[in-house]
Amino acid sequence: MTEMRSEEHPTPVNYPVELYEVIRVIRKVPLFLEEHLNRLYQSARLADVHHLPGPVALEEKVVSFLRNSKVTEGNIRLSLTVQSEEDSPEPTLTFIPHRYPKEKEYEEGVWLRTLMAQRELPNAKIYRPVLRQRTDEIIAEGKYYEVLLVNHEGYITEGSRSNVFFVKGNRLYTPPMQQVLPGITRKVILRLCIENDILISEEPVKISELDTFDAVFISGTSVKVLPVSRIDDHQFDHVNMLVRRIARLYDEQITSYIRNKIMP
Asked: Which of 83, 61, 65 is nearest to 74 (CA)?
């Protein structure tokens, strides 16, 4: 595990503040847009940022952007940069580079590496350039698909761009929302588990407990539900049936959402 200074004591957010959401687009449909906008406003409240455009205006902005674009699939970044307490920022939208997992990675699982670090205001989606640069460097080495953050108490919290779930028997475990960015994919998975009688516990997971779990997967806008075959030196079952079932349920949810939201 690589060590990095841990932000143990949250400090006030200094201006400028960049609030953002990355939204996956399939067939010109912005997946789970309502949930993304809800999280954007939650991030603003946590960062004590005010005077944002209303949700209707932002939704119309996204819809208009996609309608006028020739691109039908990809990831868009919706961002608002707030310069001062009284600033009323204008939203910016752009398609950004993305890397979706290859079919082989879904089949064989991916490798993850841990990093001793934690985000200030973990429930708020705010751009953190120092932490992002460090995790990007690790991923760019090519050996690891994602980096898992470990806090100063030795608990695994989340990935640099994902949430993480652990499987033990027929039960899922995931770090509690207080410790993580509440990912949209994570939220959908939790709901699907309840609807399909899949046992799920939101509990802190220590890095020292990794060997007690059967399987692991990460979730996120780009990765959806991606099996993990290895974390550091710990190996996991990448063909675990419960992980495969959740991946199937999530894909079915996307199909249903698109069917109901095809844009005119």
From this structure: 65
State pTM to two decimals: 0.89
The helix (run of H) or strand (run of E) holding residue 248 is helix 241-261
Average pLDDT, the chain: 91
- The answer to whether residue 5 sits within a structural domain is no
Q: What are the residues whose beta carbons fall under 8 Å from the beta carbon of 234, sequence distance 6 or more?
A: 210, 211
Asked if residue 127 and residue 38 are part of one domain, the reply reads: no
The answer to the question of residue 242 being in a domain is yes
Nearest to residue 222, comparing CAs of 40, 23, 77? 23
Q: For the segment 181-194, what is each residue's pLDDT rounded down to a tens digit?
A: 899 999 999 999 99
Domain that holds residue 240: 101-255
Tell me what pLDDT residue 13 has: 56
The answer to whether 77 and 20 are in contact (CB under 8 A) is yes
**28 and 127 together in one domain:** no
Phi first, then psi, for residue 167 (nearest 5°) are -120, 130
Q: How far apart are CA 262 and CA 264, in angstroms?
A: 7
CATH number of 112's domain: 3.20.10.10
Look at residue 10 in the predicted model and tell me its pLDDT: 45
Pull the structure tokens for residue 170: 């027929």
**4 in any annotated domain:** no
Number of domains composing the chain: 2
**First CA to last CA across the chain, in angstroms?**
49
User: Tell me: the pLDDT tens digits for 55-73?
Assistant: 999 999 999 999 999 999 9
- Given a contact cutoff of 8 angstroms between Cβ atoms, the answer to whether 182 and 219 are in contact is no
Q: How confident is the model at residue 85 (pLDDT cuts 50, 70, 90)?
A: confident
- Enter the tokens of residue 175: 């770090």
Grouping H, G, I as helix, E, B as strand and the rest as coil, residue 95 is: strand
Mean pLDDT within 2-23 = 65
